[in-house]
Every structure is written in structure tokens, then in C-alpha cells.
From TrEMBL:
One of its GO terms (cellular component) is extracellular region. It is found in: Secreted. Its EC number is 3.2.1.8. One of its GO terms (molecular function) is endo-1,4-beta-xylanase activity. Its main location: secreted. GO terms for biological process: xylan catabolic process. Pfam families: Glyco_hydro_10. Keywords: Carbohydrate metabolism, Glycosidase, Hydrolase, Polysaccharide degradation, Secreted, Xylan degradation. Residues 1-304 form the GH10 domain. The active site is at residue 224. This is Beta-xylanase. It is an enzyme of class 3 (hydrolase). The keyword Secreted applies.
Length: 321
């Protein structure tokens, strides 16, 4: 099992940040540099400079490299929207993009988030460029291209609000069944786990939902965990609740056993969190405050992980927290 974080190179010039990252985490996910807009800025012109820098740095520091993301309705290049595509041509473009990128990083990525966030909250398909032109064929094409390019990389479907039973998680289950029935390689579901303090899925709900995916023959990961406050500053009671909310995900992952392969937080220090720019006035979602002191949730996460290790659920390897 790994316990890791998403990060960006821009932050690595901060020594305090980088020391913590290298000391505390067992895996690294690039929060941006492997996304389509950066890796294929013009059609057929690939740029892996920043992605390579990230990958090599992570591996040099003996981190598990979790690669992110191949097909997503955000952060894709503008040329995709500037043309009117036939289904055949767009599927070909998707195949070429995924194949080229996965091949480039072959042997370095433990996993790929192949398709991100393809569903609406009610379990219907998101009306993205990809869906509008190809229907659900783009999903199959992306997974096929990824498995052809690197048969050893773990291939994930990754989404949020799929950590508990409901229409969206039911739709993910159907997607897994559909891909598996067609013998398309999909290894795990990534549960992003972007929660709000006091509104997170409970440990029991998360364990139940993880088990539902596992029962379909795939594994699970907690891929982007954070628990944000809707109003700031946090109260003492809020901090205690945030700790419980963080622990719910850790404990659920531990309880389902090896089939939950790992947990990543999406940024670990509030200074660099994505939250304030996406949710004005919200924040303090991470395990360290902006000034690099630990939050109560950090202590709670460490004790939940240690309890899991003692019970023998997890190996200590790669687990730095
Ligand atoms: O952390 C990423 C941030 O730097 C980008 O500006 C943002 C663009 O939407 O994407 C963030 O990462 C997202 C991830 O790729 C998918 N799940 C939600 C994450 C937070 O938005």
C-alpha cells in the first residue's frame, strides 16, 4: 500500500515543502503536467519535458509514480474544440494521444487514471466533447490504447462522489461491468474523495462501496483525498470532525484489505491547495496548515495508519506517514 500526495513542480522550490513531501509520502501524482493540454499542445506534437522531469524526480526519490490523466473534460488542448470531428476521427485522436503518452512513460507509471469524471451526479453520462461525438466509445478506446501501450500499468477510472452508494457509484459499477464483459482491461476505480467537513461519506458507506467495486473484480484506490471547510476559520469542533472524516477513508481502505491499493491526498499543505481558487472562501482541507504545522487530522491519519499496520492489513513499505 502507498500513502502519497499530488504535487506540482512549482512548489518544489520551497525547501520546507519539498522536505516534507519526500519524508512523509510514499507516492507522487502530478497534479497537472501529464494532462492532455500540456502533453499534446498541438495535434500530433507531444511535449513530455515537464512530465519527464516529474517522473524522474519521483522515481529518483523512490516514490511510487501515479500518473494522471489521459482523457478528461478539463485541461485538454484548445485544438480539440476548434475542429468539428467525426466519431471515427475523434476516436483515432484519442487513441493516438493515449497510446503515445502511455508508451512514453512505459515502465515508470505504476498506474494511469485513464478516464476521469465521465459521469454526472445522477449517473447519466457527462455531456463532454468526447461523449457528444463518440458516445461511450471513447472510454473503451482510451482503455484499449492504454493497455496496448503499457500492459503492466494499472488502469483506473477516476471520479468524485462515487465513494458511497448512490446513482453515480451505481453507474461506475455498470461501467466496470460493461468494460469487463468486453475484456477491456480496467484494474481499479479511483475514489477521488474530495469531502466537506461533516458531510463526508461515513466509514461504513465507504467500506460498503469499495467492496461493491471489488466484488466486480477490480481494485480500488483513494486517489485525491481532502476534507475542506466551507467556512473559515475552523472551529475546534470542526477540526475534530475533519479528523473523523479523514479517518473514515483511511479505515475503510484498511478494512477492505489488499484490494484497496493505496491512498493519495490532493495536496498536503494548505498553502498550495487547489480549493480556495475553485471554492471561494473555503479551505483548510489538508493535513498541514499553510505555515507547515500539522493539523489535528494529520495526527488522526497517522494513528489510523499505524493501527492498520499493527493489525497486519498493510505493509509499512512505501508508507512514510
Ligand atoms: O490540482 C489541479 C489544479 O492545479 C488544476 O487547476 C485543476 C484544473 O481543473 O485540476 C486540479 O486537479 C483536479 C484533478 O485533476 C481531477 N479531480 C479534481 C482535481 C481538483 O480540481
Amino acid at each position: 500500500m502507498y500513502f502519497g500526495t499530488a504535487t506540482n513542480q512549482e512548489q518544489w522550490s520551497n525547501k520546507e515543502y519539498t522536505e516534507l513531501m519526500l519524508e512523509q509520502f510514499g507516492s507522487m501524482t502530478p497534479a497537472n503536467v501529464q494532462k492532455w493540454m500540456y502533453t499534446e499542445p498541438e495535434q500530433g506534437v507531444f511535449n513530455y519535458t515537464a512530465g519527464d522531469e516529474f517522473a524522474n524526480y519521483a522515481l529518483k526519490n523512490k516514490k511510487v509514480l501515479l500518473c494522471d490523466t489521459l482523457v478528461w473534460h478539463q485541461q485538454y488542448p484548445s485544438w480539440l474544440d476548434e475542429k468539428t470531428w467525426t466519431k471515427k476521427d475523434l476516436l483515432n485522436v484519442i487513441y493516438q494521444h493515449v497510446y503515445n503518452e502511455v508508451k512514453h512513460f512505459k515502465g515508470r507509471c505504476f498506474s494511469w487514471n485513464v478516464v476521469n469524471e465521465a459521469l454526472n451526479e445522477d449517473g447519466t453520462w457527462r455531456q463532454s466533447l468526447f461523449y457528444n461525438v463518440t458516445g461511450t466509445d471513447y472510454i473503451e478506446t482510451a482503455f484499449l490504447a492504454a493497455s496496448a501501450a503499457d500492459p503492466r500499468a494499472q488502469l483506473y477510472y477516476n471520479d468524485y462522489n462515487i465513494e458511497y452508494p448512490g446513482p453515480k457509484s451505481a453507474a461506475v459499477e455498470n461501467m466496470v461491468k460493461w468494460l469487463r464483459s468486453k475484456h477491456v482491461k480496467i484494474d481499479a476505480v479511483g475514489l477521488e474523495s474530495h469531502f466537506i467537513v461533516g458531510q463526508a461519506a461515513t466509514e461504513a458507506q465507504q467500506q460498503q462501496q469499495m467492496q461493491s467495486y471489488i466484488d466486480l473484480g477490480v481494485q480500488v484506490v483513494v486517489s485525491e483525498l481532502d476534507v475542506r471547510f466551507e467556512t473559515l476559520p475552523p472551529t475546534e469542533a470542526g477540526l475534530a470532525q475533519q479528523t473523523v472524516d479523514y479517518q473514515a477513508s483511511i479505515n475503510a481502505c484498511i478494512k477492505v484489505g489488499k484490494q484497496c491499493m493505496g491512498i493519495s491526498v490532493w495536496d498536503f499543505d494548505d498553502e498550495y491547495s487547489w480549493i480556495p481558487s475553485s471554492f471561494a472562501g473555503q479551505g483548510d482541507a489538508d493535513l498541514w496548515y499553510a505555515n507547515f504545522t500539522t493539523t489535528p487530522a494529520y495526527t488522526g491519519v497517522v494513528s489510523a495508519l499505524e493501527a492498520g499496520i499493527e493489525k497486519g492489513y498493510k505493509s509499512k513499505e512505501k508508507l512514510r506517514l
